[in-house]
Specification:
Blueprint lengths: L1 E7 L5 H16 L5 E7 L11 H9 L14 H5 L2 E4 L2 H11 L6 E3 L20 H26 L2
Parallel strand pairs: 1-2, 1-3, 3-4
Helix pairs in contact: 1-5, 2-5
Enzyme class: hydrolase
EC number: 3.1.3.48
Family: Belongs to the low molecular weight phosphotyrosine protein phosphatase family.
């Protein structure tokens, strides 16, 4: 089983949305038996919490089921996950500090978004629903290309 981890700051907006989108796309492609995902945050702010209600509303509004409880990234994730995707450059640095060594498949999520104007997925937490939809669209595009990349690399 190939395992993918999505990481943002609090694990209530971007990374659980990325996980939900990724899982939906895996299911639609018939790859759920070969690839699994999870998400985590670099902070301890929301451990055990559901995703932000706006994250849930946006995901459900886009026909993407979401079910997650926030957790913090941990050193064990280095060994457990084959791919680690940070939502922004601050998250990337924080994850690298936790892992203390280079992970072989550690990326910024938007490296897989061909329409990117930045490598960061903006945090929609302090904005309105339009920001959540913008993030959803970015994550959808990036997730699609991420799955393509994994499938090519692993011959799926």
């Amino acid at each position: 089983m190939i395992k993918v981890l999505f990481v943002c700051l609090g694990n209530i907006c971007r990374s659980p949305m990325a996980e939900a989108i990724f899982n939906r796309q895996l299911k639609e492609r018939g790859l759920s038996a070969q690839i699994a995902s999870d998400s985590a945050g670099t902070s301890r702010y929301h451990i055990g919490a559901d995703p932000d209600p706006r994250t849930i509303d946006c995901s459900i509004g886009n026909n993407t089921p979401i079910d997650h409880k926030a957790r913090q990234v941990r050193i064990e994730d280095y060994h457990e996950f084959d791919y680690v995707l940070a939502m922004d450059q601050n998250n990337y640095r924080d994850i690298a500090a936790v892992f203390k060594k280079e992970h072989p498949h550690f990326y910024l999520m938007r490296e897989f978004d061909e329409e990117r104007d930045s490598l960061d997925v903006p945090d929609p937490y302090f904005g309105g629903m339009d920001g959540f939809q913008e993030v959803y669209d970015m994550l959808w595009r990036a997730s699609d290309k991420l799955i393509d990349s994994i499938a090519r690399e692993k011959n799926l």
